[in-house]
Design brief:
The protein is α/β, with parallel strands linked by helices and 456 residues long. The protein has two domains: 11-192, Glycosidases (TIM Barrel); 200-403, Rossmann fold, CATH 3.40.50. It contains eleven helices and 20 strands. The longest helix is centred in the N-terminal third of the chain and has 30 residues, at 11-40. The radius of gyration is 23 Å and the shape is globular. The N and C termini lie far apart (57 Å). Keywords: Glycosidase, Hydrolase, Metal-binding, Zinc. It comes from bioreactor metagenome. Residues 198-407 form the Beta-galactosidase trimerisation domain. One of its GO terms (cellular component) is beta-galactosidase complex.
């Protein structure tokens, strides 16, 4: 157990502590599940309601999820002390994460309706907004939803977690908003229980998250932001993305997103090789394959460890950026007219078989690359060597989706569309995340309105 020290702890000891904590929680969860099934019967449905913020937590949600029957989620797009909700793509990523934990539909056991907070209260969802978030949850795989809470408490630590009814017990706007949501969902039962078949997967890695908690390497490093950096541009194309653990099977997808997987795992690498050799696309971001199982560097090997032929190059040098520091990127080949910026960290890549898509505008390292594309056994491997800006990511995502022949749905900024398949017919969930009236082709959406339609 790492105790207080005057200097920095050994990163291997810290990693073993992270694993021990996660395994202890997993074993305790399994003990509870087994006990309940022994007492009540094996047919009982055991759930556990997971909180948000997984990418900042010190245990592996997916390992606990293996032992329960249904993943449940407490979906809070805003909390006490926040002036505004988190962005729509972050809400969506949390929902895709919960669906990905068991690769099946999930429940929401706490959906927000009123303002929330324990000691400090936050943003009040505007009329229609919390209902719209419920639509978003159903669209992305939730098939059972309840609100927290029905009636506000007058005592206890959560007196300021406002619900459908406030403590005055009077039915007004929030009550009728919830009533209308359940009424509208009753006619969409077939959609709610249908399976979502995503063509894109984003894999997260518990040990890599832990490694960055132990050694951030850059003051700007935040694991969840690097997840969102790869997730957001594909979400903006109105696609669902299965967010799954690195040990999960991913052969059924067409595109694989791999953010900052710093701990190299031979088994995962081999499956990525097989994936690419089937003509599919892998997108890897910086600091990939730097550490071994024990959270140590490996002597005598280029980064990414045992993967240099896969990316078509190797990391020649590295640099961490500081607060308010960035570097200009210059596009090459099909991105020749484009410029952008990058921050957080940079791998300076020496290419072997890969072509350079962007380079750093740096007089001392002009021959080293920032973003590369390698053709590997019929597939494509993109390596994004730094924390690049949204415009570059959007253009890369558009190129990747076009190459993979994946259909996208265009919509105004802030309007989310999710296509669901019901037998031989299609339905579209449309959510307006903005405070303005929006038009999606022939469909008018009032501020924060959500609908299910048969055609766009």
């Amino acid at each position: 157990m790492p105790t207080k020290t005057i200097t920095t702890h050994n990163p291997s000891l810290r990693m073993e502590w992270e694993r021990f904590r996660s395994l202890s929680i997993e074993k305790y969860a399994k003990l509870q599940v087994d006990t309940l099934k022994d007492i009540i019967g094996v047919d009982v449905v055991v759930i556990h309601d997971f909180s948000g913020g997984y990418f900042d937590k010190s245990f592996d949600f997916s390992k606990v999820a293996k032992h329960i029957d249904v993943v449940a989620y407490n979906n809070y797009p805003v909390w006490g002390g926040q002036a505004n909700p988190i962005p729509p793509y972050e809400i969506a990523c949390g929902l895709d994460f919960m669906r990905g934990a068991k690769k099946k539909n999930f429940w929401i056991t706490e959906a927000i309706m009123g303002a929330q907070g324990h000691d400090v209260i936050g943003y009040l969802p505007r009329p229609g907004q919390a209902k719209m978030w419920s639509y978003q949850a159903i669209a992305r795989g939730c098939n059972s939803l309840m609100y927290f809470r029905y009636r506000g408490a007058t005592k206890g630590a959560e007196q300021y977690c406002y619900g459908i009814l406030d403590q005055d017990n009077i039915k007004r706007r929030k009550f009728y908003e919830v009533k209308s949501f359940f009424h509208e969902m009753k006619s969409n039962e077939a959609i709610i229980n249908s399976k979502i078949d995503a063509k894109i997967a984003l894999i997260y890695d518990f040990e890599s998250m832990a490694s960055f908690r132990i050694q951030r390497q850059s003051v700007l490093m935040d694991y969840k932001n690097e997840v969102y950096r790869l997730y957001r541009p594909f979400y903006e194309n109105n696609l669902v993305i299965d967010v799954i653990p690195s040990y999960s099977e991913f052969s059924e997808y067409e595109i694989l997103l791999v953010p900052v997987m710093i701990v190299h795992k031979k088994e995962v690498q081999e499956r990525m090789r097989t994936f690419a050799s089937q003509g599919k696309t892998v997108v890897i971001s910086f600091r990939n394959g730097v550490k071994d199982y024990y959270n140590n560097l490996e002597l005598g090997k280029f980064n990414p460890i045992n993967f240099t032929d896969f990316i078509g190059g190797y990391v020649e040098e590295i640099e961490a950026f500081q607060e308010n520091q960035s570097i200009e990127l210059i596009g090459l080949n099909e991105f020749e007219t484009m410029k952008g910026t990058a921050t957080v960290f940079r791998d300076l890549i020496k290419t072997t078989t890969a072509k350079t898509l962007f380079r750093y505008n740096e007089e001392f390292f002009e021959e080293l690359s920032a973003i590369t594309l390698n053709e590997y056994e019929g597939g494509k491997v993109y390596y994004i060597g730094s924390g690049v800006d949204e415009n570059i990511m959007d253009n890369l995502a558009n190129k990747i989706l076009k190459e993979a022949n994946i259909e996208t749905l265009k919509s105004p900024k802030g309007v989310e569309v999710v296509k669901r398949q019901v037998n031989d017919s299609e339905r579209y969930f449309i959510m307006n995340h903005t405070s303005k009236t929006q038009m999606l082709q022939n469909t008018k959406l009032n501020p924060y309105e959500a609908k299910v339609v048969e055609t766009l």
